[in-house]
Amino acid sequence: MPGCAWCGSPLDVVGNAVGRRDTCPRCGHDLRACRQCRHFDPAVAKACKEPFAEVPSDKDEANFCEFFQLGEGGLTDEDPLRAAREAADALFKR
What we know:
By secondary structure, the chain is low in regular secondary structure. The chain has one helix at residues 82-91.
C-alpha cells in the first residue's frame, strides 16, 4: 500500500489515480510530486530514474510530469547507502 513520503501515512489510492491537486489527508502535502513518484531517487542525476522526464526544479510541489507513477512512499529515516556501507565494513573487517 502506498504511503506519504512526508508523514508516512498510508494512502488509500487505487492504481495510479492521483490528480495534480490531490493531497495527503494527514499532512496536506501534494501527492503528485516527485518525492511521491516511483522514479524518484536522490542518488541519481536530477533525482529521477526516468531518463526522458523533464524534471521540475522543486521536487516537493505538484507537477504535470507525464511519467509520474505513485510509488510506495512511506516515511524513511534510513540512509540509502547504509546497507552497502555495512556490507563493505563486514567484508573488510579486521
